[in-house]
Amino acid sequence: MIWFVGAGPGAEDLITVRGKELLQSADMVIYAGSLVNPGLLKVCPEGCEIYNSARMTLEEVMEQMLRAERENKRIVRLHTGDPCLYGAIKEQMDILEREGIPYEVCPGVSSFCGAAAALGAEYTLPGISQSVVITRMAGRTPVPDKESIRSFAAHQATMVIFLSTGMLRELSEELIAGGYASDTPAAIVYKASWPEEKVCRCTVGNLAETAQENQIHKTALIVVGRILDGEYQRSELYHPAFSTEFREASCRREDVPDIRDRESKGKEQQDV
Ligand code: SAH
Is the pTM of the predicted complex or chain greater than 0.85? Predict the structure, then answer.
């Protein structure tokens, strides 16, 4: 039995309880050493075999997994963030399937969630954006033409861009060509949740300069969109004039001053 486990974005205590328990009882762990915090491996039992997949091919990873499986070992394949994003797990699962070896996935906190936490951001704000585009620039791994940054930028939805810190000049050009104004708020979040985390707020137009000034060359996410700065509408769900399955509306919409607005709060107090 093989467990694909999401390690979370970096902080040792941002793995799930289930993920940690799987590590605690593992006989063998193969971890993606380029990004997974090795501190997570402290909980592995003594004698646990540990391999860093950063130096291995898929063939070598599978050879180790299949050998350990024959030896009836408890095997954890530890991927950064959540394995469903840029995790290269499908090719491993397909081989396991072919070999008749059962596997399961234990999800993790993706770095795009870690970045939102670092920014104190909500990616989906009413009146601004209700969608998040998770994508990357084409690098050595191609991106289908239909999924160009330019085409996604046309939606003006929140974007979180992975694996592109080395291509920020081109990224800016693509975002602007797609329709984002160059002064659209953006952020570079380096090593979200690690002790060395950096959060750099900037604009779509000066991503490359900002990364340069802050010496950020890899392990970062680029967040783009007006959710980072600006006006938005309050939620319907928590509006006093909105009924839900659990709560009846308590007043009319026009009677509710905006609690977020200092001026209207002042007015309300004056009115009283
Ligand atoms: N499965 C992972 C992503 C793997 S791809 C996840 O869910 O997060 C690797 C890319 O993820 C990096 O190049 C970087 O863009 C991003 N990344 C991973 N960890 C990060 C972190 N802690 N902070 C910022 N970006 C991170």
Answer: yes
